[in-house]
């Protein structure tokens, strides 16, 4: 059996073997790395952490691919409730990435210059942390002893690792990224609250900063990680999804299980169901939906819940090809001209012309599109100079030798919002969009998705024209003046 000394030595060897095994697993696996570093937070019972860590690792290793293209995704969008440790996990992720390759260059972008140093300091301190020899704990240094902050280059906002340079930069949306390029770019909570989410100028500035500033500092093949609360459909995540749907992957984590009829917590030991239900009753429903269920505020009250789509449609099967045009007023209105092929009671959208250009541009362009799309019935609202617009479109059609399109103008007497609201269910049922409609017609898509059932809407032209298509299909609207563009017929100016 051996002496007590031998037994103790054997026990020590077994402990060392287990520790070595843990270290090897932690070097290979981010979830293991996190759970060994902070076992009191990263627990087996918190299964959402498995999904979060595994998704981050797959994205880093280029194993997270687009279902459509089969290529590695470029943008990883993470939506999760507050208190789930997203920032702390991202700091662990940054440390683990340095362990994989000390040449990695990471840029983190936070809401402002107050938050940015906090994330940077946490990440740097993890690199520098040292534990006592033999204690039952693990530091980054234990896993990756070669990862060290370069002496004399350890400022909070920008620092380098030994055997590398410009390894880490923290900045904000009003900061700069000069002198630094990154292959991992992390954006953490760009929008502070619901008021900012409703501010188009703020959302525009974030988008422009990403496109014009950050993108210029991204190395080829860079991984972008955007962690945010879904306040609005046109926030940074929404715009990335609209612009690059095949390059994005969304990890959506909610506080309550959406598949559970009783609303059970997705992490009971972190946020008990009873506490979450109390919070749900206390908080404003929009705040609750955005923060804890990742439902954008404007989506919750949105008129349209979603649209049917088609990939391919045979034009020869169209029974009619129709167009409804809402002309622009002198205010903030836009011209919206929607064309659709009709099969039975369904309208397959084939073209949308949505613009704020002047009539000198829109009149000939509308005519051209009517010809190209093979439109046979065109209905134009005459309320805001539409009658003159229609006559000029007819002139241009004749110039194009397009003689088969019937142009009709009429006065719309029904209130616009009433028409839009009462026909909303018909629009979602009868209108079928092309699969890429959001990319093909971005402004039109933006306004269709944002239109609110209650309150004031800044734009309603897209909804008006689309409603008009449904009304034409159902025979609910007819023009009073008709003119077929004949070869020899006067235009009746």
Oligomer: single chain
* Low-pLDDT residue spans: 481-493
Fourth-tier CATH superfamily name of the largest domain: P-loop containing nucleotide triphosphate hydrolases
Please state the average pLDDT score.
86
Indicate the radius of gyration in whole angstroms.
Answer: 29 Å
Number of beta-strand segments: 16
Approximate shape: elongated
Q: Just give the CATH class of the largest domain.
A: Alpha Beta
Q: Helical proportion?
A: 40-55%
Enumerate how many helices there are, as a single number: 19
Helix/strand-derived category reads alpha/beta
Number of domains: 2
What labels describe this entry?
Rossmann fold, disordered C terminus, single chain, Nucleotidyltransferase, domain 5, eight-stranded mixed sheet, elongated, alpha/beta, 493 residues
Please tell me about this protein's structure.
The protein is α/β, with parallel strands linked by helices and 493 residues long. The protein has helices at 4-28, 30-37, 47-60, 86-100, 115-128, 140-143, 194-197, 200-214, 236-243, 273-282, 285-293, 297-300, 359-372, 386-399, 416-422, 424-430, 437-440, 442-450, 461-474; strands at 75-79, 106-110, 149-154, 158-161, 168-172, 182-188, 218-227, 248-252, 308-310, 320-326, 335-343, 346-355, 377-381, 406-410, 431-434, 481-484. It has two domains: 11-253, P-loop containing nucleotide triphosphate hydrolases (Rossmann fold), CATH 3.40.50.300; 308-484, Nucleotidyltransferase, domain 5 (2-Layer Sandwich), CATH 3.30.420. The strands form two sheets. The chain has an eight-stranded mixed sheet, with helices on both faces. The chain is elongated, with a radius of gyration of 29 Å. The chain starts with a helix and ends in a 9-residue tail after the last strand. Residues 481-493 have low confidence and may be disordered.
